[in-house]
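User: As part of a screening pipeline, I want to sanity-check one entry by hand. Below is the sequence and the SMILES for zinc ion. Please return the complex as structure tokens so I can compare it with the automated output.
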Amino acid sequence: MRLLSDTMEMWGCKKNKPQYFLSIVENMEMKKQAEALMPTPWGNFTMSAYSDDSKDKMPHIALVHESADRSAPVLVRIHSECLTGDLFSSNRCDCGEQLERALELAAEKGGAVIYLRQEGRGIGIINKLKAYNLQDEGYNTADANAHLGLPVDDRHYGLAEEILLDLGINSIHILTNNPLKIKAMEISKVNVVSRVPLIIKAKKENEFYLRTKSEIMGHLF
Ligand SMILES: [Zn+2]
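Assistant: Here is the complex for your manual check:
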């Protein structure tokens, strides 16, 4: 199994400069454009839409459960959009199940889900479908992106930091298996109190994908 530092180096990051990899976006002028109550099968949330521009049709979304106590650490899932998994329940990944479980836990524990519009780890749906074809030829999820000349992970978690601080959530229990996401939030202004694993059972179709996440990308389970 590769160490996280090796993985980062493999992705072109100098071991002593992880902040380069984490690409925290600065100088954004993102703000809350609108907010509404959102009853869901898991409970009542407030949904807020964040973007730089009020006409943006793909704003980032925050869902905060009605029982969240923002004066204490809040259980937070930072979820990156996965159209295929979240909306169509694709079995190629575990995103749809992770999102559902996160909403369920947010309702149970007074938590929040931050939904970032960075489809396919930031490469977009078109490139994701191309990468799936390569995966069908035997490439793993990281190598398929590399083959297409795309970054393995081009996500920016500085967006989540901005949204959380705007929501008045300064301290979190982070619901994730991704060590890079933990690191990104640890160097942010948001205080990370603990890490809560998000356990999803592997299926036949996504077993290889989950193994790659664990062995190549250093995900914790
Ligand atoms: Zn997915």
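Points to compare against the pipeline: The CA atoms of residues 93 and 206 lie 6 Å apart. Residues 95-109 form the longest helix (15 residues).
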